[in-house]
Design brief:
This protein is mainly alpha-helical. Helices cover about 50% and strands about 10% of the residues.
């Protein structure tokens, strides 16, 4: 599986090389897995197909997942993300003073999208809630994730 190195991956790969465990690595498919708040113990996956280019594979992952968001929520979320997609890096940088929750509301994204997806993302990125985290942080992470190929790493035992 082809792996583009972004974020912490180059450092991890160097460490794995120094430890001599590269031959025990198994790269997993590019996906995001969320615990479902309304179904304790259940998880929902967003799978990003390798055959599609970045961004399109992200749209596919969101549209294909039928467990977390309704179609109206997906459409409002997609429309809400358009300014970030079109505006690029300068738009992302301008979002520094706006919290995730405020940005989502300003974009007309339903609160349930924030509750189902972005509470988990906010806590994963900075251990704080969406009403405290800058949307810039989320947009940077989403941008890098959507532009990357490859996935998570798991050690074989």
């Amino acid at each position: 599986m082809m792996m583009e190195t972004v974020g912490a991956y180059p450092n991890m790969q160097n460490l794995f090389g120094e430890l001599g465990i590269n031959d025990r690595l198994q790269w997993k498919e590019h996906s995001m897995i969320f615990a479902m708040t309304n179904k304790p113990g259940k998880f929902s996956r967003f799978d990003f197909p390798e055959v599609l280019p970045a961004l399109i594979n992200g749209m596919w992952a969101i549209l294909k997942n039928s467990e977390m968001l309704t179609w109206p929520e997906k459409i409002k979320f997609a429309i809400g993300l358009l300014p970030a997609i079109i505006g690029g890096q300068s738009y992302i940088e301008a979002q520094d003073g706006i919290t995730v929750k405020d940005w989502m509301r300003k974009q007309g994204v339903p609160d349930r999208v924030t509750d189902e997806v972005f509470i988990a993302m906010s806590k994963a990125l900075n251990f704080i809630n969406p009403d405290e985290l800058s949307m810039q942080c989320i947009l940077i992470a989403l941008n890098r994730f959507l532009q990357s190929q490859g996935g998570q790493v798991q050690l074989n035992s």
